[in-house]
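Researcher: Please generate the 3D structure of the following complex. Treat every line as part of one assembly.
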Amino acid sequence: MKTYQLAPDAGIDGIAQVELPDPEPGAGEVLIGVRATSLNYRDLGIARRGQQKIIPLSDGAGEVIAVGDRVTQLSVGDRVAGCFFSTWHDGAITAEHQQSALGGAVDGMLAQQVVLPADGVVRMPAYMSYEEAATLPCAAVTAWNAMFEQAGLRPGQTVLLLGTGGVSVVGLQLATIAGVRTIITSSSHEKLARARELGADGTVNYTEREDWERDVLDLTDGHGVDLVLEVGGEETLGKSMAATRVGGDVVLIGRIASGGGQGQPWPMVVRSLNLTGVYVGSRVMLEDMNRALALHEVHPVIDRVFDFGDAVDAYRYLESQAHFGKVVIRVQ
Amino acid sequence: MKTYQLAPDAGIDGIAQVELPDPEPGAGEVLIGVRATSLNYRDLGIARRGQQKIIPLSDGAGEVIAVGDRVTQLSVGDRVAGCFFSTWHDGAITAEHQQSALGGAVDGMLAQQVVLPADGVVRMPAYMSYEEAATLPCAAVTAWNAMFEQAGLRPGQTVLLLGTGGVSVVGLQLATIAGVRTIITSSSHEKLARARELGADGTVNYTEREDWERDVLDLTDGHGVDLVLEVGGEETLGKSMAATRVGGDVVLIGRIASGGGQGQPWPMVVRSLNLTGVYVGSRVMLEDMNRALALHEVHPVIDRVFDFGDAVDAYRYLESQAHFGKVVIRVQ
Amino acid sequence: MKTYQLAPDAGIDGIAQVELPDPEPGAGEVLIGVRATSLNYRDLGIARRGQQKIIPLSDGAGEVIAVGDRVTQLSVGDRVAGCFFSTWHDGAITAEHQQSALGGAVDGMLAQQVVLPADGVVRMPAYMSYEEAATLPCAAVTAWNAMFEQAGLRPGQTVLLLGTGGVSVVGLQLATIAGVRTIITSSSHEKLARARELGADGTVNYTEREDWERDVLDLTDGHGVDLVLEVGGEETLGKSMAATRVGGDVVLIGRIASGGGQGQPWPMVVRSLNLTGVYVGSRVMLEDMNRALALHEVHPVIDRVFDFGDAVDAYRYLESQAHFGKVVIRVQ
Amino acid sequence: MKTYQLAPDAGIDGIAQVELPDPEPGAGEVLIGVRATSLNYRDLGIARRGQQKIIPLSDGAGEVIAVGDRVTQLSVGDRVAGCFFSTWHDGAITAEHQQSALGGAVDGMLAQQVVLPADGVVRMPAYMSYEEAATLPCAAVTAWNAMFEQAGLRPGQTVLLLGTGGVSVVGLQLATIAGVRTIITSSSHEKLARARELGADGTVNYTEREDWERDVLDLTDGHGVDLVLEVGGEETLGKSMAATRVGGDVVLIGRIASGGGQGQPWPMVVRSLNLTGVYVGSRVMLEDMNRALALHEVHPVIDRVFDFGDAVDAYRYLESQAHFGKVVIRVQ
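Model: Done. Output below.
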């Protein structure tokens, strides 16, 4: 089968297509014919820093083409997506679960065929295409975990979404079906207009005002939001904290640039803030989220689909930050 | 001022209009000119069993017409509703909070003027009429507490609502804005049709099938619902439990008939069910719910409005169970 | 190897020793040389009602004597105990997890050798004997789940324990190390004296007073306890509820006799009680509990140890209810 | 009556004794004859930065000497302590609650007489002296909130306590009665020896090793602790995070020095840490904690008691950081 591999110290340009033997499922495992994968910022970081010869990408969807012994929950022909962590089924994350992260700790989904544990795989919502289902395991589960597991958002509360990348756009869609009020930022009026079409209640163009967190406070009668999905990192953390209500949550997500260091802890105490690092989520969270998406027939927002042969172009496109929503690679 | 009072051992027919001196607010209190009140099943029970000479009804909305010393959070002219429990502000319910239940432990809202502690009163959503706001403090807070505080419902989960009384209809509205799937029962196809217009995803006519809980199971692929708002009591409790998923919640609400006793605990253990008695909710729950209703501009469903002079007719109408949603008494 | 099996419709006397082929571990599985098992009331019920030819008993401890492919977390020679549910690792219980209950849904531990999934097995605390470790998977995890997962007990709160069976005695030990106040009931002054030696703060002899729940209320200044571990079932449920504070928890445990039906739901609502069916617990709960026991070097209370050949006598002894703590069968 | 007041911009030396009229309780208020107060680091910060002419100190205990109208829960002669926030009774903290912080937002306890809302006052445990009860409202409630409300610690888990100031020492006492494992740091072997006498399971002298967080990891088999009570601020935050397990909690407490900036958010994400700012706690937390202390007759650790006339010396002594536990001022 054809697959891609990262080469140590070679960066994005070192991502190369190779031919590997077809994998076979052992007991408790399934073989998946991958149809589509999607990219996350994490994948850029892994490609840049990578020291391992590994198949990249955590996110992918496809069809079960063989099952190993003792697999009862899935059958050949089932349309499935892989979980970000193959071994994190439910409950709290542990250091052991982290050793099963696809496309990082272990081989990922940018291949024609992959073998995964049957209990590290979920059925796709029936109405979704493979491309759509392939966008969910990392970005959407992260947003779900942050909003409903960590912060326990309820209708009428407010979430602040930073930018229009994968996590923020699907976060906007999930918050909207949950009756949660949404405020989203961007440097582009056009992207903000698209966000409003998806349901955004408030929009802030952060290029128009240095202290754009004041706009967020104004939109919440000075109280601040209940939750920030903080994907920006140290450049925005101080502003995110200032835009959050007393007792509110700031969830830190994804690869955050080093440097800056505005994260002074003192405001956290007087304002009783809660900062939590969220590292994707469990299989049960993916299942719960899929059920919610299916009830409302939400279609994940795909910005662009690349062919399997153009995987490196997909990485470069994500790097450009021109996208709104998700960048997908069709596999077969 | 004019008011109604319950007479000991006199039942519904003993509810009589009387003239009492105008009340005056002390320190920390406000005087409210009541504009509308609403009825709950609880009020029937209190009238029937009542041993106290008390002003009835927990639910009412009106205008602040005077404030006592040290009141800073409210001003004359504010449009407000009273909380069911004047002293339960936030956190867990206690026996002490229960001693402040309007229209039961202490005087209620069926009067032209009432005095309440300023921190036992909330501002009404601006877009609501007094009649609408008067429907919320008991039934809607009960539904909110059950769904979001006790069961922590999330989008994509399923709630079962029994009948089309006050709690079930506003529960349907709240679940709908929260992206929660709803199944509702009634003996009337017409009422079920109205429920569908309000957003009900599944409907069950319980007159058509003795074991109507099977219909609920069928609507959930055999798994059962995540939560039942159990307003029916012992006649329905066994069926409600059978219609709930492993690990799910059955919230017991309101006045439940004595007798029967189908509540065998054994199925609770093998199916890990959780039964919780919910007794309305706190002021913070009322505020949180109002914020959610306001974001989506939900209008509570009023079945019929009676004049102040026809209060006893309103009681009789509620008793008939012909209503869909809430029964209101306009005060002035 | 030697093992016992239940015979359909044969009751306790039908439990017979048989010779079966030695089992072999597959991928992800371990082979355990069982050293000790313990009995729970559940096992009496399964033996009486049993329709399946099954190896009984959920609880057992022993030594790993072989490991299958892909097992990295355990090695030959490890001292281990089996989890009650082989597939419930963490998070919430599901119907699927219930299909892995040892000695009920699948073969149990009353055998010289058993094969279990490696992730359905935990290391024993080093200071415990096999007999002690064999008492924990069902009764102790049930008590832990009820007290710390469901009720979230904190130091200074009060738990009511009914009788001196396996769940109540280990519940007393666990509550004591957690700084929780304990009240325990028995019909025997001698057993109550032993309970006091184990740390019981209050004792109630329920043969001395029909309304012994009043004694419990007196011991809590009339407020009631925060939690009842309700192992008695319908005979005691009404009293347990009356002995619980407003907003408190009653956790229903184990096999509860059918019949009676004192479980009137109405007091639940006015007193905002929470009834939860607890069905043992997950592997993570067993691990967390072992860590707590180990920190305080708690030794589970064993009433009597039977030889492997006398397994039926052990059943009969448990049935007599003469025990205080756990009944153990030594296997080899 | 005699009291102290802070003078704007005058620092600790500007704290001066003055004579003010005796206060009188209004409706819902009580007058307390203060017997003892205690100091917290916060009080140093307020004195240094203070811009208001205010009576300092949040913590105090005394006797009720008069009650206003409508006060039913307290009587003359009751031995009481004031809550840190007069208006935060239960539930989540809000910006409004913060406006009632004694000795900061409003007048505090360093006076012979104070008037407080009756529901902002709690009864002292009967076995405690006024000096002991005066140590609890700020430091001990903070430790309770962090350990049992935020982190939900259970027996067998591990908490890291930094230094031997007021929060850490009472945190050690509270964790010990809860069966929680404790690791404490100090620069003094003598103080660590005292901590071991109070129940500390592990001790770390941070002067002996630059990377003392490795000692903490070694004491937890490399996993890290479940919770850090982070009182040190930016100098220690990086080490505290490194010493915490995947998914664990770091609770930020008290006045944290500005500057440094080791709070890099990235480790939070990969290790799924949770940082929470805890700002003391509610009245219900103080009551719950008192109940726990009373069950185990814990005596808070008082380092030194100063006379009312020597209040400034008490401030200077706290500033020296020579203390172990609490610094108290006897009022009368």
